[in-house]
Amino acid sequence: MIKKIAVIGPESTGKSFLCEQLATHYKSNWAPEYAREYLLTHGTHYAYEDLYNMAIGQINKEDNALQQLKSACQNNEVDIPLFIDTDLYVIKVWSEFVFNKCDNRILKMIAARHYDMYLLCNIDLPWVADELREYPDLETREKLFHYYKDCLVQQNVPWQIISGDYKERISDAIASVSAIL
Question: How confident is the model at residue 77 (pLDDT cuts 50, 70, 90)?
């Protein structure tokens, strides 16, 4: 059985790196964040309506990665994790933070998706700037972290905060994921 593990958190908290490392450790697969691809293709000036398109793209990325993993381990009797670099909670938080609202279609998609665990990346890594990141200041990063944490507190899927340097993060994440496999 495939277990879907979503890795979420504010910008520059090591989500992509963590997903890649976990997929390597478990000899599994991961779904990259679609919003980065979307913004690199369409430009960094996005509107409220673009977030729905990003949500659809994220779901497609997840579903494609899931199908690839299912095909690769058809006869596998053990649980295997699929790591997802951000899910629709990230789009919800971003939408509410930037536009003070979230498209009801995105909220319905969130309610319809199932995950087996969330890993919430803390903001204790140094900020690394890139052409897509918007909020380097600590106050905003802390606020966004708490928005993500509030989302997780209000749902019933197991979750864990992942903190520390990269080595500590991968170790804590492996322990958390292994506990549900």
Answer: low
88-99 and 104-112 are packed helices; what angle lies between their axes, rounded to 10 degrees? 160
Specify whether the backbone of 153 is left (phi greater than 0), alpha (psi in -120 to 50) or beta: alpha
Hey, what are 92's tokens?
């919800």
Provide the whole-model pTM.
0.95
Q: Beta-carbon neighbour count of residue 148 at 10 Å?
A: 23
Q: Extract long-range pairs of 75-79: CB within 8 Å, 24+ residues apart.
A: 78/181, 79/1, 79/2, 79/3, 79/180, 79/181
